[in-house]
Write a structure and sequence with these properties.
Layout (H helix, E strand, L loop, with lengths): L1 E9 L4 H11 L6 E7 L2 E9 L3 H12 L4 E6 L4
Antiparallel strand pairs: 1-3, 1-4, 2-3
Length: about 80
């Protein structure tokens, strides 16, 4: 199963490397990763194969702990 995430975060040079670093620490490679800047905020979409259930909940919780991240949402149908 694939987890599709929407992440809202500060438009800071460290935001994307921190998010991707968290995924790489768990041996996860996104099948889709896109970011769009809207002023001071990044709207990030990320689809991660083989991430579901409790593992997805842990990743979401870890993403929410990143200081630059405002919100993480698991999208329906992902």
């Amino acid at each position: 199963m694939t987890a599709s995430l929407r992440i809202r975060a500060d438009a800071d040079p460290q935001t994307l490397p921190r998010i991707l670093g968290l995924l790489s620490q768990r041996w996860l490679v996104p099948s889709l990763f896109s970011a769009r800047r809207d002023g001071d905020v990044l709207d990030i979409r990320c689809s991660v194969p083989e991430l579901a259930g409790p593992a997805a909940a842990v990743v979401v919780a870890k993403l929410e702990q990143i200081v630059l991240v405002h919100a993480v949402e698991v999208l329906a149908g992902g």
